[in-house]
Amino acid sequence: MAKKQFKAESKRLLDIMINSIYTHKEIFLRELISNASDAIDKMNYKAIENPDLGLTRDDFRIDISVDENARTVTVSDNGIGMTKEEMDQNLGVIAHSGTLEFKKALDEGAESSIIGQFGVGFYSAFMVADKVTVVSKAFGSDTAFKWVSDGVDGYSITECQRDSVGTDVIMHIKADTDAEEYGEFLRSYRLQSLVKQYSDYIRWPIHMMVESGAWKETGETDEDGKPKEEYVTATEDKIINSMVPVWMKKKSEEVDKECNEFYKTKYRDFEDPISIIRANAEGAATYRAMLFIPAKPPYDYYTREFEPGLQLYSNGVLIMDKCEDLLPFCFRFVRGVVDSPDFSLNISREVLQHDRQLKAISANLTKKVKAELLRMLKDEPEKYKGFYAGFGRQLKYGVVDDYGSKKDLLADLLLFQSYEKNELVTLDQYVDSIKEGQNRIYYVSGDTFSQAAALPQTEPVKDKGYDFLCLAEDVDGFVMRSIRQYRDMTLCDISNDDLGIEGDEEKKDSEAKQEENKDLLEFMKEALGDKVSNVKISSKLKKHAVVLSSEGGITIEMEKYFRTLPDYDGSMHASYVLELNDAHPAFEALKKAFSEDKDKAKKMAEIMYDQARIISGLPLDDPVAYSDMVLSLF
Ligand code: ADP
Ligand code: MG
């Protein structure tokens, strides 16, 4: 019978698995048990849909058996099984997310030691076995099939015998080598402890023939008349997992540890979650939930690959693996489980989206997550800062997304760099330490905190002794525009907004200056053409000669962000305003040239404009021309 070839990418992955030097080879068991559990979930679902089948929850089981002489470990289930086509499909190619992600990470140069982070799935059996046989009979099919592979060479599928629906995965454990020991996986106690460690929460019973021994009375007595005892061993069929889902267990230190294990195994994280949120509600909506806040974003968090969503169970039956409607998008980093008897098993995604019950649960969970983050911010600020380093960007995106509809939920969770305190502060902390007479929340954007803090426009705010927030992330400008007001205070962009610092006198003064220099400003504007939309005498500059600001909806920082987008076509740009300091010697020189040598004044205008671009961190349109122009003045 002809062997089939694995698809190319599967082959490569298999090769990695077979030759794996990964130290946590034992995860193969967790993966196979998880597949068995998935298959039973599916069968259980069928059983509920079709009561005629006469199957109940108690009928389902997973069995682990060992044959030390044949060196095999078998994981069996009476789940949904696989047809011949499904075997070909599911075991012959990389079909699913975890393995695919793993392969992608490897292609991008990651070390194979990162295996544990991914749901490496079925192929992980090849880390410990040199031959794997899968015998399966699918629900609704009369024929069973056998899939056999001894690695990269390929696999074969033939018809075989299996009485009932379900699947056996038989692993022929590798021989020990000098470097690696595989025999441990043939020892019952080792397998038991692996089940305890990784699969205890699996909701289906995992059975194993377990040898136990005890001293028993023989019925005879010794010389002293004492009953004689002998050590009797017996093997019995035992359930080796506790089967209680972690979210059903009462909180305790022990259970917290289990929850952490559950989290790490289920969501492939190395680190414990920084928070576990439990909820148990009855009434309008009845549910239990266990939510986890990860310490750090997974490697693919800010990509399209990341799949958010909580697992939704109904009375212990999984009805949706990634239900995205249980939490708002901005909290998509939260992992966990919701179990509610209120949902019917065959509810579709579409119907679920509009379900009232679901909306009520979602509203509650959102509140819980928010409350937990606020608690952390208050009680464990360092921990919160760690969280914020990874997920702050998500919270900011959340403010901007969806037309700012979540800004009230998120604004008090944000942190910004304070110029005065030189550390991250909340908007509340900023407002609480506001100065007498100050009625705005000032912020300024730059490429880095220190560059933002040093911008010439900040001088009047510094002179007043007001604190301001330094922003350096591309999304920040959008966030501030979206929030606009916080606790009755207007957010003020130092570079582009009216600072509200000038008194009436100063305002009049400033208007007079524009008038006084009208011709020069007009000339500058003409000289610069469509590069600028306006040229004016600045009210913000003290020591420095020029600065660029913008008018209209797009600020310079926003333009910089647009420039980073791959399909930037130049259309999204700020309307620049060139601001001049009339008290600066450069302005005097400009004025002189304007009256004596228009050509020179034109050159100066261009240089001033380019200088201002440099200060703003914008690229020069023509760096060579700029340089030539500066040096021509020598
Ligand atoms: P994943 O579990 O992430 O889908 P795996 O590599 O673990 O990926 O398994 C691949 C596929 O093989 C599964 O999606 C499932 O369709 C099928 N499969 C594996 N084990 C079993 C099993 N015991 N019973 C039924 N189908 C199975
Ligand atoms: Mg799997």
Please describe what this structure looks like:
The protein is 37% helix and 22% strand. It is α+β, with helices and mostly antiparallel strands. The chain has four domains: 8-231, 2-Layer Sandwich (Heat Shock Protein 90), CATH 3.30.565.10; 246-391, Ribosomal Protein S5, domain 2 (2-Layer Sandwich); 415-493, Rossmann fold, CATH 3.40.50; 504-632, Heat shock protein 90, C-terminal domain (Four Helix Bundle (Hemerythrin (Met), subunit A)), CATH 1.20.120.790. Strand 14 and strand 15 (424-425) form a beta hairpin. Helix 2 (27-49) crosses helix 5 and helix 9 packs across helix 14 (476-483). The longest helix is centred in the middle third of the chain and has 24 residues, at 356-379. It starts with 7 loop residues before the first helix and ends with a helix. The site of adenosine-5'-diphosphate has 20 residues, from helix 2, helix 3 and helix 4.
Salient structural properties:
single chain, 634 residues, alpha+beta, Heat Shock Protein 90, Ribosomal Protein S5, domain 2, Rossmann fold, 4 domains, six-stranded mixed β-sheet, binds adenosine-5'-diphosphate, binds magnesium ion
CATH class of the largest domain: Alpha Beta
The CATH superfamily of the largest domain is: Histidine kinase-like ATPase, C-terminal domain
What's the helix count? 20
Return the domain count: 4
Topology-level CATH name of the largest domain: Heat Shock Protein 90
- The counted number of beta strands is 22
Which percent range describes the beta-strand content? 15-25%
Low-confidence stretches: none
Listed once per kind, the bound small molecules are: adenosine-5'-diphosphate, magnesium ion
Backbone structural class: alpha+beta
Q: What's the overall geometry?
A: elongated
Mean pLDDT: 89
Helical content, roughly? 25-40%
Largest β-sheet summary: 8 strands, mixed
Strand order of the largest sheet: 5-4-3-6-2-1-7-8
Instruction: State the separation between the terminal residues, measured CA to CA.
Output: 87 Å
